[in-house]
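>> received
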Amino acid sequence: MMKYIIETGQLRRVVLTAVLLLTTAGCSGTNLGNIDETDDPRETMPGPGILADEQGETPLKLKTGADKEATKPVPVAAPVTDEKTEFEQFKKWDDLRTNATDSAEYQEFLEWIKYQKFKAGQ
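>> returned
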């Protein structure tokens, strides 16, 4: 007597094929009835349409290079700060620049970079 061993991949293909055949057979026998394919008067209404203005032009248009120059934003002046505020900001920046390499967050970031290099090498 012969023994048949079906592998998982083969079994999966057989089951999927059976489901596909049953679905096709079930759908092919469905009667959709008499479908009226004439145009509905609401589909052919006169006028510009939903996304158009009174002249029938759509407000959705592509911008060209000339349009971009005309609508270029006007640069806004930087906020005025006094020297004391500016000096305080400079001190914070200088402290972060010099002492941030010793922080726990930065050390964790360096370990993450090492891990990414290790992961990419495998």
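>> Residues 8-28 form the longest helix (21 residues).
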